[in-house]
Amino acid sequence: MDIFVLILAVGIFVGFFVQTILGFGGALVALPILLFAMPVPEAIAYISIFYVFSSLYLMRKEWEYIDKNLLKKMTVSSLIGVAIGVILLSFAKPLLLKKALGLFIILYVVYKLKANTSFRLSNSFQFVFSLLGGFFSGLFSTGGPLYVVVVNASTPSVHTFRATMFGILALVTFARIPLLIAGGILHIEQFKYTLMTLPFFAMSLFLGKWVYKVINKEFLSKMIMLILLLSGIVLLIK
């Protein structure tokens, strides 16, 4: 196994292990690891391929728990955002936007921990955050934290939150794939390395599902905030 495949396998395993437990964070965790072996667009392409696989599996498992009304509200703005993000990824290197996202995530976590209370977003704010979530999903596959803001403020339990996150991330993934192909970012050569990495990916889903079943849900809620904070710091300094 050469170093490229090893880094790809480690990044995908760790990223989707976290994704399966929390409902988000796969790209945020995998991306910094993959960047040791490849440029941003190629890393986004690999993450997108594995998001398709995980979405098909996890959506089937969690469908009954998804808040489908909320998912419908987020669909149009998310799809618009994904299209804009992929176009920008094809023609630019907007690293400043990546750092801005990191700063926003950190400020959100600090506010959430300081307030220590639940709140609801208006329809207008749901639209804006979903648009930005789609935008950063198309650009860096890192729109999850923005969706966390919307879904966390609108769902009654960790289980519903997690399942709904699977739903919205599946939506943006299926929208992103044809746009990445059209932009020349996703191509057939990448599928060869994808097949080599599949055993590590399958192991991440199996172990992540097992950990989710045994983990304390209050601890899981705290882990969501911790992963958000760490991902914000990584985006800000990377």
Tell me what the structure shows:
- By secondary structure, the protein is an all-alpha fold.
- The chain has one domain.
- 82% of the residues lie in helices and 0% in strands.
- Helix 3 crosses helix 8, helix 5 packs antiparallel against helix 10 and helix 6 packs antiparallel against helix 7.
- The longest helix is centred in the C-terminal third of the chain and has 26 residues.
- The radius of gyration is 16 Å and the shape is globular.
Task: Give the arrangement of secondary structure elements.
Elements: H1 3-22, H2 26-34, H3 40-62, H4 68-91, H5 95-115, H6 123-140, H7 144-152, H8 158-182, H9 189-214, H10 217-237
Helix pairs in contact: 1-2, 1-3, 1-9, 2-3, 3-8, 3-9, 4-6, 4-8, 5-10, 6-7, 7-8
Task: Provide a concise account of the structure shown.
This protein has 238 residues and is mostly helical.
* Sheet/helix structural class: mainly alpha
Oligomer: single chain
Strand coverage percent: under 5%
Helix fraction bin: over 70%
